[in-house]
Amino acid sequence: MTSWEIKGREFVNCNCAYGCPCQFNALPTHGFCEAIGAFTIDQGRHGNVTLDGLTMAIAVKWPGPIHEGKGECQPFIDERASEEQREALLKILSGQDTDPGATMFAVFATTFEQVFDPVFAPITFEADIDARRGRIRIGDLVEVDGEPIRNPVTGQEHRARIDLPNGFEYELAEIGSGSGRSRGNVALDLDNSYAQFAYLHMNNHGLVRQRPAA
């Protein structure tokens, strides 16, 4: 197993209501799951391959709850990545060189029935975690925007967090509202639904925790 470690940020928009039930071991809001997410690496490596500054993304969908499988995944990889970097990013994204179930990438990989060939394209990624604002653009295939949830009466920004001391994706996520579109093999249309903004720090064995697991 080649050792790896990444530290960065994520912005994910799914079709569930705010406070996505998956985070609470409950069934999805509408009975099925769809999501678009991007992950930028501020510092990272896979073996001796440096991954600093690169971004990877996915458009995914499942006909039912994620754990029932039969999912489809379209990976997107930063076109600036070299051949070695592309291979490394795809290994991390597909759960390779990772302890079973240790990261969300490894977990999701076991639920996919179809993984399409990766698309190498320019990726624009912006994520201000604390402000709950984000932006993803992948060529003419993906566009996602995130903003804070707003009080329906006053219009004021509302702040909520999800704290997962034993999670396999993040320890603490800021929750917002997202709207996104994807085209191609996994075509999605998300409108004012759940969005999460989080810092990522993980390696072969799972999250590198900033505090003891509960």
Mean pLDDT: 96
Q: How does the helix and strand content classify structurally?
A: mainly beta
CATH class: Mainly Beta
What sort of overall outline do the alpha carbons produce when their principal axes are compared?
globular
Low-confidence stretches: none
Give the SSE order as H and E letters: EEEEEHHEEEEEEEEEEE
Determine the number of helices (DSSP H or I, runs of at least 4 residues).
2
The number of domains: 1
CATH topology: Acetoacetate decarboxylase-like
Query: What fraction of residues sit in β-strands?
Result: over 45%
Give the tally of β-strands: 16
- Summarize the biggest pleated sheet: 14 strands, mixed
Any overview of this molecule?
This protein has 214 residues and is mostly beta strands. The chain has one domain: Acetoacetate decarboxylase-like (Beta Barrel), CATH 2.40.400. Helices cover 8% and strands 49% of the residues. The chain is built from two helices and 16 strands. Strands 1, 2, 3, 4, 5, 6, 7, 8, 9, 10, 13, 14, 15 and 16 form a 14-stranded mixed beta sheet that branches. A hairpin with a 3-residue loop joins strand 9 and strand 10. The radius of gyration is 16 Å and the shape is globular. The model has no long low-confidence stretch (mean pLDDT 96).
